[in-house]
Amino acid sequence: MSEATLERGLNALKEVIDTPMALFFSSCTHCGMCATACLFYTETENPAYTPINKVEPLRRLWEQEYTLVGRIKKALGMSKPITDEELEEWKEYAYNACSLCGRCTMVCPVGNDITYMIRKMREGMAASGHTPEGLVGASTRAVEIGSPMGVKLPALQAQARHVEKDTGIDIPFDVEGAEYLMLMSSMEIMNYPEYLEAVSRIFHAAGKSWTISSEAFEATNSGIQIGSSDIARQLVSRVVNAAEKLKVKTVISPECGHAYTAIRWEGPNLIGRPFPFHVKHILEVLDEFRAEGLLKTEGFEDARMTFHDPCQLVRRGGVVQQPRNLLNMVATDFVEMKDHGIMNWCCGAGGGVSANEDAEELKMKAFNRKKHQLEELDGVETLVTACANCRIQIEEGLEENEIDMPVVGLTELLAEHLVEENKTEG
Amino acid sequence: MADDRTLAEMLRAQGITRRGFLKFCATTASMMALSPAMVPKIAAALESARRPSVIWLSFQECTGCTESLTRSHSPSIEKLIFDVISLDHHHTLMAASGHAVDEALNEAMEENFGKYILIVDGSIPVGNPAYSTVSGISNLDMLEHAAKGAAAIVSVGTCAAYGGLPYAKPNPTGAVAVSDIIKDKPIINVPGCPPIPVVITGVLAQFLTFGKIPELDSLGRPKAFYGQNIHDRCYRRPFYERGQFAETFDDEGAKKGWCLFKLGCKGPVTYNACATTKWNEGTSWPVEAGHGCLGCSQPDFWDMGGFYNALSVPTVDLAKKAAVGIAAGAAIGVAAGALNRRKKAKAVSEHQTVTVDDLEKGA
Amino acid sequence: MNEVDFLLWVRGPGLAIATVIFVLGMTVKMFEIFMLGRKKNLAELRGTGVKEGFRTIITRSGHVDTYSTRNTRFTHIAGWVFHIGMFTTIFLLAPHIEVFKSIIGFAWPALPTPIIDLATVIAMITMLAMLFHRITNPVLKYLSTGQDFVVWTLTFLPLLTGYMAYHHLFFSYTLVLGLHILSVCLLLVFFPFTKLTHAVTLFFARWYNGMMAGEKGVQQ
Amino acid sequence: MTMACNDATTSGEEIFTGNVTPILNEIRHALNTLLETGESTIIDLRALPMGPGEEQHLESLLGIGEATATINAMGPTTVNESLFAGVWLVTHRNTDDEILGKFIEITRIPSILESQTEDIRGALKALPDLLAENC
To answer: At B95, is the pLDDT very low, low, confident or very high (cuts 50, 70, 90)?
Structure first.
């Protein structure tokens, strides 16, 4: 039972500093423009939440360890060392006040990918034991129980039988050779059971084979949120082993944000080799079905609708047009938010903020940005999104601000209008 | 030798009418770059001026200044000035020679001790005094000896004022300026290589009329002649502003009389009266003749980075220096980079896998 | 050391030393940066991102975030105006072009000096406004360290002394030209060791930014 | 044949530097002052940065008016009124006919032309001798 120490933290930071980061730290001119792109700053006006400030200890470490002048200054005792106290203070800036949403990265005039650096900063925070209580708990549960919210397989199996009863469609567990491996996020299993029903009906209608692995049904990855690649590797390896054992062609990341980033973008780099299978977000797959004519819908929603772009899916994931294509199949009055698409604002709960009790109040304050966005749209009745975490956050936010607006998952919405040939009753 | 008659009496003795004297004052005022309104004042001052005795010593020089001053090719107003001042000693101009010259010099010094003006042209070799001697006496000793009784010293020419050509790198003779040796006497520097004749006589006339040292700038030069920056008074300045430059001495721009900045003109850093007073009675001056100003009235004008390099061009080959920088930088850079990589590799090797159990301090 | 010797020193050895330190420092920095390397991205990418990287080098100068345009409008516009003013002064003034010609061998047409004069004045006024903004804006006040103000001064002095030299203000042209070149030397000497390196590294940083987004199919 | 004051003269390589216009304006102001206060002004052409040919160009513009006079004192001095009354051009030359100074005087009569008191006293002394000899 080794323990977290400052040494291990600094060592972790030394491991992750690379050429892009050296370029970024050499380019920052303290112009402050990343602050106004970050909802944690705009809604609190706390200058400490300025994104580039969140990596100040990392910057000093780079300067002291990886530049000639920095090393000389350190040798002459002219440099300020990184201490536990400082990292403890930075826990609030790098975790509570950051959802890794990536907006600062899109705005920085000298092109610094600040999100990339905060994610790396968290590696050092995790190794040196300066991570929020909530995330430690979530990671422990994810590793030991299999899901950050403690969801076990029987709960999923119960939900599956429930869906089978309702739709008559068989939920395939551990089917070798299926084309798709379906992953679920605990949030969906616990809060949004309609998701499983929706995907099973859609896939059934599309005639596509899919399965759920009983060994690795959990999509979320607390390791990514807490910022420890080691823990993230442990979690993502389960998915990879299951997918390889079942010989699937594509792993589907469900309506969740960071899960997609964890599996598709960080997964291969965590385990050190390219995946023998594709990784796609559920919306990507549905859009393919749409294109191939396998997803037919009927009827339209008459309510005025808008779409909240989950950061990890759209800005950090590149799934930009698909949600629009799908939503336009069922919506006649679809209105885009002012800053939509890759520049949309975060809901305030991503990147581990929702699992972090210390950040509760801050999370709600950050939600005001999304509230202002909605207020700017006149007469919107329904908000559609594609991430369970965003959904809960927005529902809580709207409730707290007494705004009566239903929040709907896009996959569910499509299922409601699904055309099924041999619809069995019951 | 000294004549105690006033200047006015002398002129009248030569049959020059008052109107002639007024003309003399007008042209002298113009020479001294004073405003015409000053003529009555100058007339009054000139009238009562005493004829100062002048001793001219030539040291390490090319006689260019003397020729420029005396304008041996066509004497004019300066000749008149010469009639006015009693030039008691000048190696080149004196008819006498040999010991007679030395006696004349000592005699002139004793007689007007403390009153005569000492004019020096040429620099003084202190590296090895033997480089330049006059009848066996080194320039250094002669200067120190002559300076004792001088009321004021006028260093004529950049050599006397700042060391000039002999002083230019590598300065084999260890040449120095007058002001480097004589510290206790008022010194008026009249630099130029050579100085404009009118400027030399102008300074003398000014000293003669007002009897005191004219106002000097930081380099000891009379502001009347050296207060103006050539660049500011140059008639080609409008071309500089419009960015119209001659690129070579015979291109379209040169023919049209455009600015010669790119051909090395040192006008912007040079203070002299060439642009207005011009040379050869206002005929022309270097820039008007199509050649950039050399900055000859400035110290070290020989080492200003080449007569034909633009003023802004550095006097060292920066490309070569940059190459040195890159080479050294690359060497140090590769070493520093390697150090970084080793440090990073060491960190990676010492990586202790983080598990959920050791996420807390002292868990 | 009178003013002429000062000018001669600073035009010669002064610039030489400054150039060596500048070039050496920047070369070392480039090696330090690029020898750190970057792990290859093993994920299934939507593209190499190379094209997006180059596009971002250009698009990132524009303003992407409609919301913050209201709040950082000043920084954005002042940044543009200052840089245009300064670069016009540096690269389109005839004497400066002569300096570059002596180093790299070729030259280009110059703008008339009154226009450059205007550009210098605009650049200086904008810098003063930016300094005021850095002191008063809460975010900038929080972020700013001593270095930000040192770099501000290092950048302002060449403009100021250049303006004074051109207008023969206060001191003799020789002295002020010397001070102007000295201020440029100081700028060069400190360049590799301060945030001034952004002038070079920002192009690579923007490229990486755009490339990493492009790999995932996101294009600004 | 009127010429624009700043045009280079026809002789080819004259340089157009725009120095002539300011001088003409200065003369205009001086004439005004002369009328209003009677104060005369003298412009020393040797103190102005004139391009080649510009001086001749200025003189050709001013032209030669009705009154011309020459004084022989230490070389000839020519005084002539330009086409513009009150604007006189005074050129001093030495015994070798070299120009020593060139002035534009804006006055009723250049002072150089007036007989000087000392010279008149001299004449007063010399006249009786003349009377004694001749009549």
So the answer is: low
Chain B residue at shortest CA distance from C31: B333
With beta carbons under 8 A apart, name residues in chain D contacting B76: 94-96, 98, 100
- Answer for the pair B311, B264: CB distance below 8 angstroms, yes or no: yes
Asked if the structure places residue B288 within a domain, the reply is: yes
pLDDT of amino acid D97: 79
The answer to whether B90 contacts chain C (CB < 8 Å) is: no
Identify whether the C-beta of residue D5 lies closer than 8 Å to the C-beta of residue D61: yes
Where do the DSSP E strands lie in chain C? none
Same structural domain for residues B239 and B212?
no
As a whole number of angstroms, the longest Cα–Cα distance in chain C is 68
- Residue labelled with tokens 């050895």: C13
Same domain, B321 and B335: yes
Residues A395 and A132: beta-carbon distance below 8 Å = no
Token reading at A11: 């060592």
Helix H segments across chain C? 3-9, 15-34, 50-59, 66-92, 94-104, 113-136, 138-143, 146-167, 173-190, 198-215
- Taking the C-alpha atoms of residue A82 and residue A60, their distance in angstroms, rounded to an integer, is 8
Is residue B78 a part of any domain in this protein? Answer: yes
Look up residue D73 and give its DSSP letter. S
The helix (run of H) or strand (run of E) holding residue A303 is: strand A301-307
Q: Which of residues 243-272 of B touch C (CB under 8 A)?
A: 243, 245, 261-262, 268-269, 271
Q: Per DSSP, which regions of chain B are E strands?
A: 53-58, 86-90, 116-121, 124-125, 133-134, 137-138, 150-156, 175-176, 187-190
Which parts of chain C sit beneath pLDDT 70? 64, 68-70
Q: How far is the C-alpha of A195 from the C-alpha of A181, rounded, in Å?
A: 15
Which of the other chains make 3 or more beta carbon contacts under 8 angstroms with chain D?
B
- ipTM for this model: 0.82
Please name the member of A28, A66, A269 whose beta carbon is closest to the beta carbon of C32: A66
Residues paired with residue A129 on neighbouring β-strands, in sequence order:
none
User: Contact A48/C141 with Cβ under 8 angstroms?
Assistant: no
Which DSSP category does A181 fall into? E
The answer for C 85-124 residues in CB contact with A (under 8 A) is none
Average pLDDT over residues B233-249: 87
Domains and CATH numbers, chain D: 9-134 (3.30.1370.140)
The CATH fold of domain C3-33+49-215: Fumarate Reductase Cytochrome B subunit (1.20.950)
Counting beta carbons within 10 angstroms of the beta carbon of residue B186, is it exposed (0 to 12), middle (13 to 18) or buried (19 or more)?
middle
The band of D12, judged by pLDDT with boundaries at 50, 70 and 90, is: very low
Q: Is the pLDDT of residue D7 over 60?
A: no
Nearest CA in chain A to B343: A14
Q: Tell me, what's the pLDDT at D36?
A: 94
Beta-strand pair D68-72/A210-211: unpaired
Provide CB contacts within 8 A for A297, sequence distance 6+: A329, A330, A414, A417, A418, A419
Closest of B329, D33, B359, B136 to residue A225, by C-alpha = B359
Q: What is the pLDDT of residues A48-76, one digit of tens each?
A: 999 999 999 999 999 999 999 999 999 99
B211 and B349 fall within a common domain: no
Full residue range of the structural domain in which residue B179 is found: 52-225
Is the pLDDT at B101 greater than 80? The verdict is no
Percent of chain C with pLDDT over 90: 78
Distance from CA of C193 to the nearest CA of B (A): 14
Residue contact C216–A318, C-beta within 8 A: yes
Residue B294 to residue B192: CA distance in whole angstroms: 10
Q: What fold is seen in the domain A6-131?
A: Fumarate Reductase Iron-sulfur Protein; Chain B, domain 2 (1.10.1060)
Omega within 30 of 0 (cis) for the link into A276: no
How far apart CA B47 and CA B41 sit, in angstroms, is: 10
| Other C-beta atoms lying within 10 Å of the C-beta of residue A275 | 20
pTM of the model: 0.84
